Amino acid sequence: GQNIDQPTEMTATEGAIVQINCTYQTSGFNGLFWYQQHAGEAPTFLSYNVLDGLEEKGRFSSFLSRSKGYSYLLLKELQMKDSASYLCAVRGDSGGYNKLIFGAGTRLAVHP
Amino acid sequence: DGGITQSPKYLFRKEGQNVTLSCEQNLNHDAMYWYRQDPGQGLRLIYYSQIVNDFQKGDIAEGYSVSREKKESFPLTVTSAQKNPTAFYLCASSTGESLGEQFFGPGTRLTVL
After folding, report:
1. Which of A43, A96, A97 shows the shortest C-beta gap to B104?
2. Which residue has the higher pLDDT, B112 or B100?
3. Inter-chain contact A33–B101, Cβ cutoff 8 Å?
4. Rounded distance, CA B102 to CA A4, Å?
5. Chain B residues with beta carbon closer than 8 angstroms to that of A87
6. Residue A98 binned pLDDT confidence (cut-offs 50, 70, 90)
């Protein structure tokens, strides 16, 4: 079967660093996405990894290890507005079309 | 401004009624998707369309129907056959190439009374 696991909830302090982990087991692998979703709103794209290693984009970084089926999203210098759900999604072997498999999301609460 | 619009944001219907959710995009994307989001679960794919006049069932298509008569539009009908239709529905689009990220609309929250 296909499975994506991420923690349900996390809390962190404003200004700190938080790491959100994602492990996956899928039929094939053609990239991993991280999305941010505020309550009741659309998910917005944060990052994309297809090769092993770290991708850095401002305060956000994402890491991928394909051999371990593992990724993490690193958020630095946390701000209150970072309180949101973070969705990990994998594009598996889907016969050429852009099918994503989503994890349930990690709800991050940032406290002052 | 390019983007994806969904309307309405909130929708209430009585049990047994069909309801159609709108999704329009002006990003010139070939591919469009419908997802359902329930609390504590990941987004689940209902239907997708890679090109005009063609669409395929996703993982949870039962009780839903779609059409793709225009590139810009991909409406979703929630029929009375859908046993548990109350959910948050998200529409997305992408360039259609297998490497493209998906862009999401603001969603429609459907409540069936």
Report:
1. A43
2. B112
3. yes
4. 18
5. 42-43
6. low
Helix (H, G, I), strand (E, B) or coil at A82: helix
In this complex, do B101 and A104 lie within 8 Å of one another by their Cβ atoms? no
Report chain B residues whose CB lies below 8 A from the CB of A45.
101-103
Shortest distance, CA A112 to any CA of chain B (angstroms) = 26
Query: Could you please report the per-residue DSSP string of B11-56?
Result: EEE-TT--EEEEEEE-S--SEEEEEEE-TTS--EEEEEEEETTEEE
Phi and psi angles of residue A82, each rounded to the nearest 5 degrees, phi first: -80, -5
pLDDT tens digits, one per residue of B19-29: 999 999 999 99
CA-wise closest residue to A101 among B33, B43, B49: B43
Hey, CA dihedral for B7, B17, B71, A45, is it positive or negative? positive
Q: Shortest CB distance from A98 goes to which of B4, B94, B105?
A: B94
Q: Does the pLDDT value for residue B3 go beyond 70?
A: yes
pLDDT in tens, A1-56: 688 999 999 999 999 999 999 999 988 888 999 999 999 899 999 999 999 999 99
- In the block, which residue shows the tokens 């630095």? A76
Give the residue among A67, A54, A68, A62 at the shortest CA–CA distance from A88: A62
CA angle B97, B98, B102 (to 5 degrees): 80
Report yes or no: A46 and A63 within 8 Å, Cβ to Cβ: no
